[in-house]
């Protein structure tokens, strides 16, 4: 699969396909011409000895310090070296790879003053899967993701570490092996590489892709639980949801009915009871609200993926060329979106834990054994799996605290408000992994509950899911190390993709 980058049309679906098919990137000729034109402007600035931030001056508080023309290129190298002070565990390789794709796409808009050599180096690293090792922590999410993107830039100039063919190696060694020269940074190029939101946006895109798929998967998991509790299908009638006016809610109700079609385990109102508890009756309302969050986040990420978000920016106004210092590197729009994503994901975990609690609680599960134990008393069954789920959703409530409400001034108060968007992105992925394990626990418990209820009564679509999962996790016939089952089901949920 070839992904053609223009600077303007990259989508989340493009990234999903690019990753799943191990694609390569191509640069359109129109985008390359824009790169050349913006670079010509930088060369004119240098020739005319103009005072332009980051090209002929220092950075941050040093923006009023003029740089000797003979040191313009060294200024950029110094910038990258000094700003590469990220700490903590590195981003996953897919995140770092997407980070490079997003940065390349931004440069192709033609507002950054990068050279053709720079965009070709990024393209080469992407296509050869030379992936920079980028520490996760250290970004304030304004002035760009300076620390993470500096580690990306280090790899391009042959000074950082990279993942290559399953190993962590020095970038210089990999480039020598491939007979590829390190990039020599020119004036403005270090700044063009690190002023931007690509770390938070790349992590946000990866989290979004996995979260949306997991949200769809949560519906068939909930459908298993619905049948185990002999749930009432009337609550999913389309008329109820259409009058609420939320398309996402209506869509969830429609999909739930589709999953449950043909089941002999479901009931109608008044057969066993008049109403179900909220965790069954309100699945469309609760899950639908999370899909509303996802739709909002998708829109904001799509905007940012195709945005010019470095500083200064170069504009061709026909009669004149403008070089304007601004603040498009400020991550506030994405910080808000990713904090919102955290809440939408966290709530899917909250309601999942409440559903699985109903299955193991003998006062609520409609006559099933306590904790679905094969021998209540002698064997604990699913008792402590509910504990684990409760712990994860509690942790998520802490992680869901918005990072974007915090700000600590930096650069001697020149940069006096920051977004903390990259923290939101990192915490979002932690929440996602926790929710995936909560849903894995619900899956294991729901499988056991419907088995006790009678799998022959399952709807055809959920029976298909039951049979698939039983190849991964066996019935609970005696107590065992359930953490292995949880991880196996979580891995299954991560690997499969479901999109409407």
UniProtKB/TrEMBL annotation:
Subcellular location: Cytoplasm
Site of covalent link 5-imidazolinone (Ala-Gly): 142-144
Catalytic activity: L-histidine = trans-urocanate + NH4(+)
Signal peptide span: none
One Pfam family from the record: Lyase_aromatic
Processing and modification events after translation: Contains an active site 4-methylidene-imidazol-5-one (MIO), which is formed autocatalytically by cyclization and dehydration of residues Ala-Ser-Gly.
GO biological process: L-histidine catabolic process to glutamate and formamide; L-histidine catabolic process to glutamate and formate
Keywords, in A-Z order: Cytoplasm, Histidine metabolism, Lyase
Top-level taxon of the source organism: Bacteria
Residues modified to 2,3-didehydroalanine (Ser): 143
InterPro entries found in the cross-reference section: Aromatic_Lyase, Fumarase/histidase_N, HutH, L-Aspartase-like, Phe/His_NH3-lyase_AS
This enzyme's EC code(s): 4.3.1.3
GO cellular component labels: cytoplasm
Pathway noted in the entry: Amino-acid degradation; L-histidine degradation into L-glutamate; N-formimidoyl-L-glutamate from L-histidine: step 1/3
NCBIfam families on file: hutH, PRK09367.1
Family: Belongs to the PAL/histidase family.
Protein name: Histidine ammonia-lyase
Gene (name only): hutH
């Amino acid at each position: 699969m070839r992904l053609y980058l223009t600077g303007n049309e990259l989508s989340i679906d493009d990234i999903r396909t690019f990753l799943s098919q191990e694609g390569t990137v191509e640069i359109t000729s129109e985008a390359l011409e824009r790169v050349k034109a913006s670079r010509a402007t930088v060369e004119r600035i240098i020739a005319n000895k103009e005072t332009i931030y980051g090209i002929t001056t220092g950075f941050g508080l040093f923006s009023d310090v003029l740089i000797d023309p003979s040191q313009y290129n060294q200024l950029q190298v110094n910038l990258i070296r000094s700003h590469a002070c990220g700490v903590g565990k590195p981003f996953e390789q897919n995140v770092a790879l997407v980070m490079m794709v997003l940065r390349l796409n931004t440069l192709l808009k033609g507002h950054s003053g990068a050279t053709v050599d720079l965009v070709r180096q990024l393209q080469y690293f992407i296509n050869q899967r030379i992936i920079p090792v980028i520490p996760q922590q250290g970004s304030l999410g304004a002035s760009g993701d300076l620390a993470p993107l500096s580690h990306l830039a280090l790899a391009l100039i042959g000074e950082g570490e990279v993942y290559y063919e399953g190993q962590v190696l020095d970038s210089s060694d990999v480039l020598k092996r491939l007979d590829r020269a390190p990039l020599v940074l020119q004036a403005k190029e270090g700044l063009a590489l690190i002023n931007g939101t690509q770390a938070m946006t790349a992590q946000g895109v990866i989290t979004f892709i996995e979260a949306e798929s997991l949200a769809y998967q949560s519906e068939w998991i909930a459908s298993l639980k619905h049948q185990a509790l002999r749930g009432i299908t009337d609550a999913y009638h389309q008329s109820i949801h259409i009058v609420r006016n939320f398309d996402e809610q209506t869509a969830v109700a429609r999909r739930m009915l589709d999953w449950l079609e043909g089941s002999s385990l479901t009931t109608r109102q008044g057969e066993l009871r008049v109403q179900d508890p909220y965790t069954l009756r309100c699945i469309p309302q609760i899950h639908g609200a999370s899909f509303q969050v996802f739709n909002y986040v998708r829109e904001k990420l799509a905007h940012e993926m195709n945005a010019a978000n470095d500083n200064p920016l170069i504009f061709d106004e026909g009669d004149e060329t403008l070089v304007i210092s601004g603040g498009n590197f400020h991550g506030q729009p994405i910080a808000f979106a990713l904090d919102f994503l955290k809440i939408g994901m966290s709530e899917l975990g909250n309601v999942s834990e409440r559903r699985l609690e109903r299955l193991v609680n003998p006062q609520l599960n409609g006559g099933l054994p306590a904790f679905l134990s094969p021998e209540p008393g002698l064997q604990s069954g699913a008792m402590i799996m509910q504990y684990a789920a409760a712990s994860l959703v509690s942790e998520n409530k802490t992680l869901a605290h918005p990072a974007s409400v915090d700000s600590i001034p930096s650069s001697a108060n020149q940069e006096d408000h920051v977004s903390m968007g990259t923290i939101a992105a990192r915490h979002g992925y932690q929440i996602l992994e926790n929710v995936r394990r909560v849903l894995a626990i619900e899956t294991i418990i729901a499988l056991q509950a419907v088995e006790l209820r009678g799998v022959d009564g399952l709807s055809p679509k959920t029976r298909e899911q039951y049979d698939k999962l039983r190849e991964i996790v066996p019935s609970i016939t005696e107590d065992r190390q359930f953490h292995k089952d949880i991880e196996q089901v979580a891995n299954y949920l991560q690997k499969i993709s479901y999109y409407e």
